[in-house]
Amino acid sequence: MDAKTLNTIGLVLSIVGGTLWFFYGFPQPTHEESVGLALEDGTVLPDGRTVAQHNEQVRKTRARYLYISRLALALIILGFVFQLWATWR
After folding, report:
1. Are 2 and 85 in contact (CB under 8 A)?
2. Does 6 have pLDDT greater than 90?
3. Mean pLDDT (whole number) for 33-47
4. How many CA atoms does the CB half-sphere of 70 hold within 13 Å?
5. Quick check: helix, strand or coil at residue 50?
């Protein structure tokens, strides 16, 4: 591949990674200072789901966001590698 093609691939990977990073960002630590009351897993919420079902959905969403944010970082790094390769090849 020529330098132009490698550079273009790197730029595309970086912009896709940056866009994903913008929407899915990296997880941040919680800085909550308050204490909430805990509900039992069998407690039914106003939307009809139980607390256990809600917690499972939250875990799946958190895992998806973490996966996509790591993918975004990998795409940005891979884009950088392609651009570096195009420059020094």
Report:
1. no
2. yes
3. 77
4. 6
5. strand
* Cα atoms in the Cβ-side hemisphere of radius 13 Å centred on 86: 17
pLDDT surpassing 90 at residue 78: yes
Work out whether the CA dihedral 52, 28, 16, 75 comes out positive or negative: negative
- Conformational region of residue 48, where left means phi above 0, alpha means psi within -120 to 50, and beta covers everything else: left
Q: How far apart are CA 50 and CA 53, in angstroms?
A: 5
Q: Residue 44's beta-bridge partner residues?
A: 50
Report the alpha-carbon distance of residue 4 to residue 8 in Å, rounded: 6
Q: Which helix (H) or strand (E) holds 87?
A: helix 51-88
Dist CA 86 CA 89 (whole Å): 6
What is the pTM for the complete model shown? Answer: 0.79
